[in-house]
Design brief:
Elements lengths: L2 E5 L2 E4 L4 E8 L6 E8 L6 E7 L5 E3 L7 E5 L5 E6 L8 E9 L13 E2 L3 E6 L1
Parallel strand pairs: 2-11
Antiparallel strand pairs: 1-3, 3-8, 4-5, 4-9, 5-6, 7-8, 9-10, 9-11
Length: 125
């Protein structure tokens, strides 16, 4: 079984930046997608960005295009979400999720098999 753990959340002012990380353990993904989702209080969990582990392809929600960037390290067990030009509406718990043996990058919550516990990102005015 795969375990995912996010880190790097915190409090930042509008216009600031944060980088959150997701570390996977338990087994390697030979063909997997990593998704970033977020959930604000009273809101549904929504797709933010994703990366295909093998190819490095990425996809972004319209709300974060040009501001957020997904990347991975050389060890192939860590994924980052760099968040720039943060806005108050970015305030949410950010989750990483993984799906094994997928060709593309799912953008729906139900498509993912594994989830981390989340890390809080708060953007103040």
């Amino acid at each position: 079984q795969v375990q995912l753990v996010e880190s790097g959340g915190g409090l930042v002012q509008t216009g600031g930046s944060l980088r959150v990380s997701c570390v996977a353990s338990g087994r390697t993904f030979s063909s997997a997608a990593i998704g970033w989702f977020r959930q604000a209080p009273g809101k549904e969990r929504e797709f933010v960005a994703g990366m295909h582990w093998r190819s490095g392809s990425t996809v972004y929600a319209d709300s974060v295009k040009g501001r957020f960037t997904v990347s991975r390290d050389n060890a192939r067990n860590r994924v980052y979400l760099q968040m720039n030009s943060l806005k108050p509406e970015d305030t949410a718990v950010y989750f990483c999720a993984a799906k094994s043996y997928t060709i593309g990058i799912p953008t729906t919550r139900g498509a993912y098999d594994y989830w981390g516990p989340g890390t809080q990102v708060t953007v103040s005015s």
